[in-house]
Design goal:
Blueprint lengths: L1 H24 L4 H12 L18 H23 L1 H4 L13 H15 L16 H8 L4 E5 L2 E6 L4 E5 L5 E6 L9 H8 L4 E5 L2 E8 L3 E8 L7 E5 L11
Antiparallel strand pairs: 1-2, 2-3, 3-4, 4-8, 5-6, 6-7, 7-8
Helix pairs in contact: 5-7
InterPro entries: DUF4309 (IPR025453)
Protein name: DUF4309 domain-containing protein
Keywords: Signal
């Protein structure tokens, strides 16, 4: 009876030990658990957004960074495109301002005063009193020299000046096509100098003539195609006669 009881107790004890061993083999190793926790803690915070599972290391962070890098230039480009003035500073400021009425008045009155001396702005050689020989001695040979109308005309293109002279070398016409003159319109001229004393037409050019003293005429030549001055002329009619004619 005692032997039978010991046998049963041994069987029960062995069964318990086998059951305990099976339970222990199903639990993870403490070192493995620590390793998994360490790997999770190494992921950057940006790769672990709220409400979504943690991504695999080395995937989403790189894609997020790539998206950010792509978006940044686009944003900068949009800002530049929306602000052309900022991209090209000073564009409007580079445009020259139009002359004021006071400046135009001064310019035109000076033209008339110089014309009374036979001169145009910036040129010392005058109609009636000047000789083409003196011009050529100082300025050299003209770019072109040709007969036209009542005399011979020498063109100095680089100076925007043309001299008309007779066969006695006396200058009777001084013309200027300076850039500031070519901005003038008939309306601006008439507002300062009044209506012209005479008008004429030469082809498609309208000529507006103002008497500048007894000796000279101040002429504004305005092509129909532009509506602005092409050149001015200070003209001494009496000297345009061929003084060397036999």
């Amino acid at each position: 009876m005692i032997t039978t009881f010991k046998t049963i107790a041994g069987i029960i004890l062995l069964g318990g030990m086998l059951s305990l061993t099976a339970c222990n083999s199903g639990k993870p190793d403490a070192a493995d658990t620590g390793g998994a926790a360490a790997q999770a803690s190494e992921l950057p915070a940006s790769a672990q957004p709220e409400g979504s599972p943690a991504p695999a290391a080395g995937t989403e962070p790189a894609e997020a960074g790539g998206a950010a890098a792509t978006a940044a230039p686009d944003a900068g480009g949009s800002a530049a495109a929306a602000s052309p003035a900022a991209a090209e500073p000073g564009t409007a400021a580079g445009n020259s301002a139009a002359a004021t009425p006071q400046e135009l008045s001064k310019q035109l009155k000076e033209l008339l005063q110089l014309a009374k001396q036979g001169k145009v702005p910036g040129v010392e050689y005058a109609a009636h009193s000047g000789l083409i020989d003196d011009v050529e001695a100082a300025w050299g040979e003209p770019d072109t020299k040709e007969s036209a109308g009542k005399g011979i005309y020498s063109t100095y293109a680089g100076k925007h000046v043309v001299f008309g002279f007779n066969k006695g070398s006396q200058i009777f016409d001084v013309r200027s096509s300076a850039a500031d003159l070519q901005k003038l319109t008939l309306k601006q001229i008439e507002e300062v100098l009044g209506k012209p004393d005479a008008t004429s037409v030469n082809g498609s050019d309208d000529i507006y003539i103002y008497q500048a003293g007894k000796q000279y005429q101040l002429k504004f030549i305005i092509p129909d195609s532009t509506g602005t001055v092409d050149h001015i002329s200070v003209f001494s009619e009496q000297d345009s006669i061929n003084n060397m004619a036999g």
